[in-house]
Design brief:
Largest sheet: 5 strands, antiparallel
Number of strands: 5
Mean pLDDT: 81
Helix content: under 10%
Length: about 100
């Protein structure tokens, strides 16, 4: 029995299944879905450790796996200790 992939939604955190050499983003890098488009296309934001955007990429669903679902946490499907990696805090202060 083959499991169907999770449905990708805005604000989900993804992990690349292949490198993006033109953007210098390696396999395994994590990003956030910013927008969903028809035909399994998605706008993904990749950020550095400071939360600054380093790339915006239009990817196919087959290019990534979902590692954290925003909707699942809202509905209590993930434990409160689950955290999205690489997503900038909205409450960060600038000096």
């Amino acid at each position: 029995m083959q499991l169907s992939p999770l449905k990708a939604s805005e604000l989900d955190v993804i992990e690349l299944l292949r490198p993006l050499p033109d953007r210098q983003i390696p396999t395994g890098s994590q990003g956030t879905i910013l927008a969903t488009y028809p035909n399994d296309r998605f706008l993904i934001e990749f950020a550095n450790d400071e939360g600054e955007t380093i790339a915006l990429c239009d990817l196919n669903r087959s290019d990534f796996t979902i590692v954290w679902q925003a909707d699942a946490e809202l509905h209590g499907l993930l434990s409160p200790s689950s955290k999205a990696v690489g997503v900038a805090s909205l409450n960060s202060t600038s000096s």
